[in-house]
Input
Amino acid sequence: MLNLILNNENIGTHLPPGMPLLDFIRYHQHLTGTKTGCNEGDCGACTVLIGEIRDNELQYRIFTSCLTPLGNVQGKHVVTIEGINMDTLTPVQQAMVDQSATQCGFCTPGFVVSLTGFCLSRQTDPIAAIDGNICRCTGYKSIERAAATVKELLVARNEEGPVDFAVDHAIVPGYFKGIKERLELLVAVNGEHAFENAEELQMNAQLVAGGTDLYVQKPEEMLEIPLSFAWNGFKGITKQDNTITMGAAVTVSDLLESPVMQTYFPELKSYIKKVSSTPIRNMATIAGNFINASPIGDFTIFFLTLNTILEFNSGRVLPLEKLYKGYKELDRNPDEYIQRISFDLPSLFHFEKVSKRTHLDIASVNTAINISIKGSIVSSVRISAGGVGPVPMLLKATMAYLTGKKINENVVAEAIQIAWKEISPISDTRGSAEYKRLLLGQLIKAHFITLKLL
Output
């Protein structure tokens, strides 16, 4: 039996763990405030809060329930709009009313849940909290004003815990104060289904971590096939000497919140802002991005420059750059999965991405660089590029040319010419082949300008 807390009720269910959480909420628990929209994690109408104990603290993140498998909420607290409602409007709901931030109302529950999640976090930007919510009719300025009002609610919080503050100021109902103890008891009795070694994973089962790609590509199939859930295992980010190691189930948000990553990638927040949206970043795993094998996977491009090493459950070790044999073709046996990821700390690092939208969009072209300079000479360099070939690419000829050179305008211009010979972009909805070729050249130049090497 799968056990969770849904709003203020302990729930046990034998329903298929591959069922989308959205379907469980709406069609089995009859909580219809959570809306069915795109079913691709794009609109935010199905947003819920998921709470779990991290570092001995109850912490909440926003998720798109349409892409969340029921198996991933074992031992968690799931909060829908009904679980936020009280006898009177909450301050978040009142802010939406006061600012005329709703019209047809279809998207409103998702916005309210996301802004309530902001109040339950230590985030400082309420606009970032709603970057995964789309409104089709109201107009975003009124919603932005409501978000600014919500931010003002937290001015007096100081060092008080987010959950306690939110309860004390009637942002969420009082039952939230008892959730930590209830989750501790739930986990003690039932466990978290944390799969931390190969023996605990079912043979011949589909391994599921965040599910953000699987539930877009084959949602119906996920109900029928045997599944193993790696969401709660393979976590953690550590540093030893010059190497960072992380579990394969580390999410993008875990990466962003890691003190280790913040220390050695000071611009990490600006990079990650270009990737997807807050709820998807809360769900999507780094290893999942690798295995997806998209030619423009943002974190594949990010980590290609870092000489990243993959450790499989079989014991096999493989450089990330060797994983891709062709379009969506991997050097991986069917029974292999990534357990750990390790990479060396960069010298000078920079990531660039251009897409049609800031959030929730696939790159037209993305690229990263990791470069070391000794004296004024390039001692080593790795440049990756996505969207310009059938697989995520390391621009090896370009890298070889730059090594040993002193960076100047002419050298960079020649490097771009060489890069153009290495790539084979195609025209598609994200731009023409010629546009992508020119864009990559501009982004390579942007690397050197941003790193103040030009």
